[in-house]
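Section 5: illustrative case.
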């Protein structure tokens, strides 16, 4: 009985240490999410905000309106494709540079780490503005180097998405690089030496040795990248001037912003936010479940 009580107390101790942080997170996350869900089932426009009309309950009416809008499905598809491309490119660049860090000497490694952390620490607005200048049709150096004249990267839909993707990868890959590099350093050197002695190429060592051993770390950076890239707002809003010409570069977060604040349809904007949250939860839980089936412990 005494051992059982001691085990229970030991199990409660970590939660007691975490309790203050959980309370803060509850106030910062739970309450806004509840308010978001509440507004999404109400009739809440500028008339209700100003007190001109009473707030009324709509139930799933806002979601019905949203799902019957063809623009919503177009924006959702664009968001999924754009986020997937950003995640894949971020993971590829981050993992490649993490492997490179293990192959170079101390001074180049330090320089690369500082440059990457500088990109990571740059605010999204600043980074987006810098990239706009680099690709500016009149004054940007990229067009001059490539001989493109006054080509506008933000005029076309796909070129604008490509430009934003480059900026997103630029400010996101340092997290992947540093995390994966730390994981590689934790792998016993004897394992890598044995694989090299067996004649495995660098790609084969990564695919057959490092990647399986780093799978829990890769799961964390993948989920984090999905969350970051799926809810991109600043880069799209700044670099495409609010979503591009005729909304051709809209993603869900910018679409929700336009509905809520440009059109004063706060309930529809909240509904888009709820849908985005549910999609991210489904993707995260599905990915974790897949890893559990493969026997990985996270």
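Designed sequence:
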């Amino acid at each position: 009985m005494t051992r059982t009580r001691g085990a229970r107390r030991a199990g409660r101790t970590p939660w007691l240490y975490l309790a203050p942080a959980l309370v803060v997170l509850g106030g910062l996350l739970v309450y806004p999410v509840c308010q978001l869900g509440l507004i999404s089932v109400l009739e809440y426009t500028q008339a209700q905000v100003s007190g001109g009309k009473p707030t009324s309950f709509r139930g799933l009416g806002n979601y019905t309106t949203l799902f019957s809008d063809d623009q919503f499905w177009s924006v959702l598809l664009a968001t999924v494709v754009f986020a997937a491309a950003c995640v894949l490119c971020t993971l590829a660049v981050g993992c490649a540079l993490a492997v490179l860090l293990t192959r170079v000497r101390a001074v180049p490694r330090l320089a690369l780490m500082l440059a990457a952390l500088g990109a990571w620490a740059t605010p999204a607005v600043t980074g987006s503005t810098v990239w706009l200048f680099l690709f500016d049709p009149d004054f940007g150096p990229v067009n001059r180097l490539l001989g493109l004249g006054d080509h506008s990267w933000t005029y076309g839909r796909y070129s604008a998405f490509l430009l934003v993707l480059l900026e997103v990868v630029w400010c996101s890959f340092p997290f992947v690089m540093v995390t994966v590099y730390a994981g590689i350093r934790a792998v016993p050197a004897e394992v890598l030496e044995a694989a090299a002695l067996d004649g495995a190429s660098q790609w084969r060592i990564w695919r057959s040795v490092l990647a399986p051993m780093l799978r829990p770390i890769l799961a964390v950076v993948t989920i984090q990248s999905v969350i970051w890239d799926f809810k991109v707002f600043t880069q799209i809003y700044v670099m495409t001037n609010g979503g591009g010409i005729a909304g051709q570069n809209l993603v869900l977060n910018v679409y929700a912003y336009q509905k809520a604040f440009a059109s004063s349809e706060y309930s529809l904007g909240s509904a888009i936010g709820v849908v985005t949250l549910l999609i991210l939860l489904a993707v995260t839980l599905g990915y974790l479940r897949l890893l559990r089936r493969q026997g990985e412990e996270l």
